[in-house]
């Protein structure tokens, strides 16, 4: 079974309300549900967009998960579900839906998200006095294997920054790539955040902070090292294309917005050139930013703010990375760790 697709036509970033609602109504019209439940579905999606301020991508994914659940219940019971029927669903009904997803090969992380979506929907129904189901609150998320971010060592990160410019014969392209990677490693940006920057966002010389718009359209302020602002200034001076305020800061060789695939291929080339591990990707530089800050004594809460993590538990994964580094150092250097 393929993972439920999001609402077709929803663009990433902040959703346009009229466009989103039109797409949601089209999705709702395809649901095998009664009219009262269809109206509740549309209202809940509006709640996610307007009150929770979720991104269009997140709203699309959540709406698709809920649509899959409702359509499953229609087939499972052989009748159109309505709000009254939702209140009567049993633990077995929820487990049957989840078992179908697991049996269809949908990965644990997607199933965990879907369970959270369904629980959120039923909490909203109760709050709105539309339906109440105690079994939904007892639904448990599948355990998701804990992944530890793969960071580069300080020397590997430095070698990457020093060498990336050598992969291009065009001086302005070389300066562009250096500036981009410095934003990832020097500021902890996601590749999508860096590539979404416009010319108006470019820091002036001497500017020491920048406002970044991350996931869920949440903004955060990140400090800028002088080497980062200088690299961006050098790139802009050498770039052959004209810029206006809303133009993409990072441009492709034909003048359009730069694609993430371009820098991904550059890093892939560096893996062979520098002997970097297979986990060396543009995103690994963001992991390296956090890991190296933590190793240097950085406060976990401060690192959470710099990364734009909504939950501290997400940032705490980097403590595991640092422990691995400490253990490796101990095994290599401590006399008591040497094998006899």
UniProtKB/TrEMBL annotation:
One GO BP annotation here? cell division
**Could you tell me which PROSITE patterns the record lists for this protein?**
CB (PS51900), TYR_RECOMBINASE (PS51898)
Which keywords has UniProt assigned to this entry?
A: Cell cycle, Cell division, Chromosome partition, Cytoplasm, DNA integration, DNA recombination, DNA-binding
The Tyr recombinase domain, residue ranges: 147-331
Tell me where in this chain the Core-binding (CB) domain is found. Answer: 35-126
- Active site per database record: 190, 215, 283, 286, 309, 318
Is ATP-binding tagged as a keyword? no
Where found? Cytoplasm
Principal subcellular localization: cytoplasm
Q: Which residue ranges does UniProt annotate as crossing the membrane?
A: none
Q: Which GO terms describe its molecular function?
A: DNA binding; tyrosine-based site-specific recombinase activity
This entry carries the following GO cellular component terms, namely: cytoplasm
Q: Which Gene3D superfamilies match?
A: 1.10.150.130, Intergrase catalytic core
The subunit field of the Swiss-Prot or TrEMBL record says: Forms a cyclic heterotetrameric complex composed of two molecules of XerC and two molecules of XerD.
* Its job: Site-specific tyrosine recombinase, which acts by catalyzing the cutting and rejoining of the recombining DNA molecules. The XerC-XerD complex is essential to convert dimers of the bacterial chromosome into monomers to permit their segregation at cell division. It also contributes to the segregational stability of plasmids.
What PANTHER family has UniProt attached to this entry? PHAGE INTEGRASE-RELATED, TYROSINE RECOMBINASE XERD
User: Family assignment?
Assistant: Belongs to the 'phage' integrase family. XerC subfamily.
Protein's recorded name: Tyrosine recombinase XerC
Give the originating organism.
Denitrobaculum tricleocarpae
Taxonomic lineage of this organism?
Bacteria, Pseudomonadati, Pseudomonadota, Alphaproteobacteria, Rhodospirillales
Give the gene name.
xerC
């Amino acid at each position: 079974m393929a993972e439920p697709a999001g609402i077709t036509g929803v663009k990433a970033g902040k959703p346009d309300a009229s466009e989103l609602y039109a797409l949601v109504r089209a999705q709702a019209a395809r649901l095998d549900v009664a009219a009262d439940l269809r109206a509740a579905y549309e209202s809940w999606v509006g709640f996610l967009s307007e009150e929770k301020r979720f991104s269009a991508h997140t709203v699309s994914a959540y709406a698709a998960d809920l649509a899959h659940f409702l359509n499953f219940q229609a087939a499972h019971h052989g009748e159109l579900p309505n709000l009254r029927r939702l209140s009567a669903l049993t633990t077995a009904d929820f487990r049957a839906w989840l078992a179908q997803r697991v049996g269809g090969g949908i990965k644990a992380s997607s199933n965990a998200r879907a369970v959270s979506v369904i629980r959120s929907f039923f909490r909203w129904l109760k709050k709105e006095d539309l339906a109440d189901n105690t079994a939904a609150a007892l639904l448990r998320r599948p355990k998701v294997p804990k992944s530890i971010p793969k960071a580069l060592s300080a020397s590997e990160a430095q070698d990457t920054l020093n060498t990336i410019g050598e992969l291009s014969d065009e001086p302005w392209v070389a300066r562009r790539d250096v500036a981009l990677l410095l934003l990832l490693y020097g500021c902890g940006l996601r590749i999508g955040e860096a590539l979404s920057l416009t010319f108006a966002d470019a820091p002036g010389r001497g500017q020491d902070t920048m406002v970044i718009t991350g996931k869920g359209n949440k903004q955060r302020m990140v400090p800028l090292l002088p080497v980062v602002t200088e690299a961006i200034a050098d790139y802009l001076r050498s770039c052959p294309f004209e810029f206006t305020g809303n133009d993409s800061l990072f441009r492709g060789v034909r003048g359009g917005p730069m694609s993430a695939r371009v820098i991904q291929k550059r890093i892939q080339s560096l893996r062979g050139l520098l002997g970097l591990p297979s986990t060396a990707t543009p995103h690994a530089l963001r992991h390296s930013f956090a890991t190296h800050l933590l190793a240097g004594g950085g406060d976990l809460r401060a690192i959470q703010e710099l990364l734009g993590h909504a939950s501290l538990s997400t940032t705490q994964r980097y403590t595991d990375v640092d422990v691995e580094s400490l253990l490796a150092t101990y095994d290599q250097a401590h006399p008591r760790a040497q094998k006899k």
